[in-house]
Amino acid sequence: MEIIRLRGLGVSPGIAMGEASLSERVVFTSRREPISEGQVEDELKRLRRALDRTRQELTELKEHVRERVGDEQAFIFDAHLMMLDDQMLLTSLEKVIVEEKVRSEWAISRVNSHFQNLFDSLTDEYFQQRKTDLSDVLARIYRNLERKRDRKEESDKPAVLVAHELLPSEVAINISRRKIIGIALDMGGQTSHTAILARSLGIPAVVGLHDISLQVKNGDFIIVDGTDGEVIVNPTPAVRREFQSKRERYEAYQRELKKIARLKPETLDGVRFTPLANIELPEEVEVAFSYGAEGIGLFRSEFIYLQRPSLPSEEDHLAVYEKMARSTHPRPVYIRTIDIGGEKSLPQLNIEKEPNPALGLRAIRFSLRNRELFRTQIRAILKASVRKNVRLMVPMITEVEEVVELKRIIAGLKAELRSQKIPFDEDIPVGVMIEVPAAAALIHSIIQEVDYVSIGTNDLIQYYLAVDRGNELVSYLFKPHHPAVLQLLQRVIKTANENGKEVTVCGEMAADPLSAIILLGLGLRTFSMNPIFIPRVKKALRAIELKTAEAAVAEALQLKTAKEIEEFMIEAILQKHPEAFLMSQIVSSSV
User: Got the DSSP string for 330-353?
Assistant: First the structure.
């Protein structure tokens, strides 16, 4: 048999080895089947029965997932139930049936196509993944238009699930009927609910494989490397042995991570640092804490807008923020207001495309242009702050005037809540993200207006170096250790510290051991990152003395290139604290 090696995107780490099992999918009809005027009411009743069956089915799936992996991932089906109950969705389906006099199958197909086209027009990967959730709900309604058929008996044999695209409920159904040890998909992304569910279940997964579902047959032996994003079909015995050894090293690495997650975050000379987590969804909180997070340093609120076809109400926002405050208490949670606009659009708003979206109407600029949306979100954040662990964070500040206007809006909303006798945290900390070079240059003025700042190094470096890190032609110029970048970071961190204000880095630099050591030497004490990277950063910072990092960074800042800085820092740290990079070596050799 021919060996096939495919590259994709690893979204759930680990290595799975076993027989492939292809998943079957619902195909929406392309046939428009008309009905008579007298049949319309019966067809509407048929649709509503399907909705009721779907609601019951989703509730059962939610309970199954809760029993298997806990509350933190059962939320996926809360989101689906929310979509199912959205009046806009039901109205859209009923409108097609009534106006076109057609069967429900065609109505579902039409509505699905409409929303898929809307989501496909967006370039942001996280936003595009939400169309999968809507398709999941519509496919389930579609199936339930007819009475459920008896399920076929599934094999107890462990299997790697292979599909073009896999809906979250299909993952739940498959794991409830059989032992799924790995997932390989043509489509999908890092932020899809399927990827999140796979990570929570500890199932290695690779997505974005383009056509693996066409290249694999049921029963083929397959290896899924969810860490490196590789899939091998029909490997030789030698390749099997290689990946078996790699799997054993990875499992040893995972055991080491779990030990580190429980250790105190402090340097060898007793200086405390604070690891926080960046998360997309409220139900990731428990997972973040299991990796050693001491709070949520960045909660991206965009998902609230993506769980429903219509715009979220204040109550929708509040339900999420109250859940965040409750699940993190007494630890802090930093809620970032919506970072949308430009390439990050919303189907509900029909935002016009811009010629240069990265420099356009996004984040705070979008919010100040859409005041009612902004006020709705901030009011909900204020109402959720009664436990006094909520922080309000605003992205992409460019000038002091934006901060002043933000504070004026917050003050007005606080006055409204007081007059209505609605409790909130009067002293809720308000901070801004330093992502625009102009804001970093104005840090002396901005820091006087806020309670804290959070540095978004991903965008800051991109804007400061004029480099699109997603453009392979120039991405080599995206250098976090560029001397100019480090000098800019030093300025921001030093100014915040001198003014007694908290400063955090929540970009990818915080998740890299070498960068974290440099940031520590620059005066940073709070690091926010993807939860899975917390143990390795904690390992690196626990293995050094602060004075070593400070001395090395002071000397490194005199060098002229990023390469010189990196080489010098690695040598300087290894000379005194070789253990600092041990975790990185484990990672590179095992994953």
Answer: TS-EEEEPP--BTTB--TTTTPPP
Burial class (CB in 10 A: 0-12, 13-18, 19+), 24: exposed
Q: SS3 string of 416-478?
A: HHHHCCCCCCCCCCEEEEECCHHHHHCHHHHCCCCCEEEECHHHHHHHHHCCCCCCCCCHHHC
Nearest to 587 by CA among 249, 330, 279, 301: 249
Q: Calculate mean pLDDT across residues 170-193.
A: 75
pLDDT in tens, 464-520: 999 987 677 888 899 999 999 999 999 999 999 999 999 999 988 998 999 999 999
Quote the pTM value. 0.70
Q: How far is CA 590 from the centre of its chain?
A: 25
Taking the chain, what is the end-to-end CA distance rounded to the nearest angstrom? Answer: 27
Task: Return all residues near 470 (Cβ < 8 A) that are at least 6 apart.
Answer: none
| Residue 161 and residue 23 in contact, taking contact as beta carbons nearer than 8 Å | yes
Residue spans of alpha helices (H) in 205-342: 212-215, 237-261, 285-290, 303-306, 314-328
> Cα(132)–Cα(81) distance, rounded to whole angstroms?
14
Which positions are catalytic? 193, 506
CATH 3.20.20.60 domain locations along the chain? 272-534
Instruction: List the one residue out of 137, 134, 104, 142 whose CA is nearest residue 117.
Output: 134
DSSP readout, 32-78?
--B--GGGHHHHHHHHHHHHHHHHHHHHHHHHHHHHHH-HHHHHHHH
Closest by CA to 26, choosing from 200, 195, 166, 233, is 166
Instruction: Give the closest residue to 50 by CA, choosing from 105, 116, 96.
Output: 105
Q: pLDDT tens digits for 20-36?
A: 988 766 678 878 889 99
Q: Please tell me the CATH superfamily of domain 272-534, with its number.
A: Phosphoenolpyruvate-binding domains (3.20.20.60)
CA distances from 106 to 28, 143, 148 (A): 8, 13, 19
Position of tokens 């999941």? 136
Of residues 309, 251, 265, the one with CA closest to residue 112: 309
Neighbours of 329 (CB within 10 A): 13
Q: Which CATH architecture has domain 1-235?
A: Orthogonal Bundle (1.10)
- Under a CB-based contact definition with an 8 Å cutoff, are residues 29 and 109 in contact? yes
H or E stretch covering 403: helix 400-419
- Contact predicate 81/59, CB 8 Å: yes
Residue 61 and residue 169 in contact, taking contact as beta carbons nearer than 8 Å: yes
Q: Quote the tokens at residue 148.
A: 């459920």
| Numbered ranges of CATH 1.10.274.10 in the chain | 1-235
Q: How many whole angstroms separate alpha carbon 199 and alpha carbon 360? A: 34
Residue with structure tokens 């055991």?
A: 255
Nearest to residue 41, comparing CAs of 91, 101, 87, 108? 101
Are 538 and 263 a contacting pair, CB within 8 Å? yes
